[in-house]
Amino acid sequence: MIAKLSGCAFAVACVLPIAAVAQATWPERPVRIVVPYAPGGTTDYAARQIAAKLSEQTKQTFFVENKPGASGTIGTNFVAKAAPDGYTLLANDTTYTMLPSLFAKLPWNYDNDIVPVTTIAQTPVILIVSASSPYKNLGELISYAQKNPDKLNFGSGGSGSSTHLAAEVFKKEAKAPVVHVPYKGAGEAMLGLISNQVDLLVTASPTAVPQIKGGKVRALAVTGERRLPSLPDVPTFKEAGLPSYAVNNWFGLAAPKGTSKEVIIKLHALVNKALEDKGLRDQFAQQGAQPGGIPPEQFSELIRRDAALWRAAAKDAKVQPE
């Protein structure tokens, strides 16, 4: 019996160094980054940009695989159930923190199935009106909405979408009773604003910036501590008189729970190094985005904080979980 136990101990002792070496040399083969949405969106864009830089650094292929459906739950669940070996990652975004407020039951759990790694980029949201709107600044719009309850309306990409909940938070903070008009997607909501079917839209900067620069919409305020370099004339919400409105979008990387700490630390370091690239930073800046790179612990706290924010917003908007 003693001989058998000694043999087991010897086997474990042999395995541990091999595992440590495997972690230290990760990645040794291609790494899949799952985007839980269709190609072409901002999350997909951020994932492909960072994947290219990680491939350059490691001399291994980081490739994006799109697994859309059910507001991102299908692709997220795929990663949650994947082997925690560092070769399947998740590109998630702010919507990830909204899902518990939109679905009565999810096939995965924040705490037990997914471990946050770091953010790729952070993007403010911008409140925009049509180019022909009579409102030249945020104060004028809020004043009219307060004096004329339910006379103004806002568009969104659908009930429970990020554009919906971001506007609900604005509505609450500004004490501005405006009416929700849901569309089938953010693109349709933007067209609704441009054609004056709705009065305002609160959306992520990558969506808004091209339309603002094209002269089709007017920006009244942007979230964040500083103005966007790409939109130097647009004031922050603080400058515009609503400092309590602080909604932001983020795009990040996560891994299946159980992925080794060594891999998480190395991936975080690789992303931070990639985000030092001037070309990548310039591309993000053109979209109104700022580089991420926060530590895993800080990312976890951001997710918890955002989840609480959206839970309250969904409750105020009377969004019924499916």
Instruction: State mean pLDDT (0 to 100 scale).
Output: 90
Terminus-to-terminus distance: 57 Å
Q: Describe the largest sheet.
A: 10 strands, mixed
| Helix run count | 12
CATH third-level topology of the largest domain:
D-Maltodextrin-Binding Protein, domain 2
Q: How many domains make up the coordinates? A: 2
- Supply the CATH class of the largest domain: Alpha Beta
- Which CATH-level-2 architecture of the largest domain? 3-Layer(aba) Sandwich
**Rg calc:** 22 Å
Q: Keywords for this structure?
A:
322 residues, alpha/beta, D-Maltodextrin-Binding Protein, domain 2, 10-stranded mixed β-sheet, 12 helices, disordered N terminus
Write the SSE topology.
Layout: H1 2-24, E1 31-35, H2 42-58, E2 62-66, H3 73-80, E3 88-93, H4 95-102, H5 110-113, E4 114-130, H6 138-147, E5 153-156, H7 162-174, E6 179-182, H8 186-194, E7 200-204, H9 205-213, E8 217-222, E9 248-256, H10 261-274, H11 278-286, E10 290-291, H12 296-316
A few lines on this structure:
By secondary structure, this protein is α/β, with parallel strands linked by helices. It folds into two domains: 155 residues, Bordetella uptake gene, domain 1 (D-Maltodextrin-Binding Protein, domain 2, 3-Layer(aba) Sandwich); 99 residues, D-Maltodextrin-Binding Protein, domain 2 (3-Layer(aba) Sandwich). It is 45% helix and 20% strand.
Q: Can you characterise this structure?
A:
This protein is α/β, with parallel strands linked by helices and 322 residues long. It folds into two domains: 30-123 and 249-309, Bordetella uptake gene, domain 1 (D-Maltodextrin-Binding Protein, domain 2, 3-Layer(aba) Sandwich), CATH 3.40.190; 124-222, Periplasmic binding protein-like II (D-Maltodextrin-Binding Protein, domain 2, 3-Layer(aba) Sandwich), CATH 3.40.190.10. 45% of the residues lie in helices and 20% in strands. It is built from twelve helices and ten strands. It has helices at 2-24, 42-58, 73-80, 95-102, 110-113, 138-147, 162-174, 186-194, 205-213, 261-274, 278-286, 296-316; strands at 31-35, 62-66, 88-93, 114-130, 153-156, 179-182, 200-204, 217-222, 248-256, 290-291. Strands 1, 2, 3, 4, 5, 6, 7, 8, 9 and 10 form a ten-stranded mixed beta sheet that branches. Helix 7 (162-174) crosses helix 12 (296-316). The longest helix is centred in the first third of the chain and has 23 residues, at 2-24. It is globular and about 60 Å long.
